[in-house]
Amino acid sequence: MGDTTASERQRVRVWFGEFPIVDQTTTAKAATAFAQGMGRRFAGLRVTIEDADHHRPGVAL
């Protein structure tokens, strides 16, 4: 995926309870905007951002 390394990529997920319903990996710069958009689209659901190479649930916005 381009010239970015895993550490420069972020994973954005939208959670319905314990189930991720959106799982997108993108550049760190785009991840924040994507997460904000998903937060508006899926108001009331938890949206997390984490390092792409990290395997634990991320920090909720």
Explain the overall architecture.
This protein has one domain. It contains one helix and four strands, in the order ββαββ. It has 61 residues and is an alpha+beta fold. It is globular. The protein has one helix at 28-41, and strands at residues 9-16, 19-27, 46-51, 59-60.
Summarize the structure.
This protein has 1 helix and 4 strands. It is α+β, with helices and mostly antiparallel strands and 61 residues long.
Head-to-tail CA distance between termini: 26 Å
Alpha-beta classification: alpha+beta
How are the strands of the largest sheet arranged? 2-1-3-4
Largest sheet, in brief, is:
4 strands, antiparallel
Identify the overall geometry: globular
Number of domains: 1
Mean pLDDT: 86
* Total count of strands: 4
> What Rg do the Cα atoms give?
11 Å
Give the helices and strands as they follow along the chain: EEHEE
Task: Classify the helix fraction into a percent range.
Answer: 10-25%
Strand content: 35-45%
Query: Which consecutive residue ranges, at least 5 long each, have pLDDT under 50?
Result: none
* Helix count from the secondary structure assignment: 1
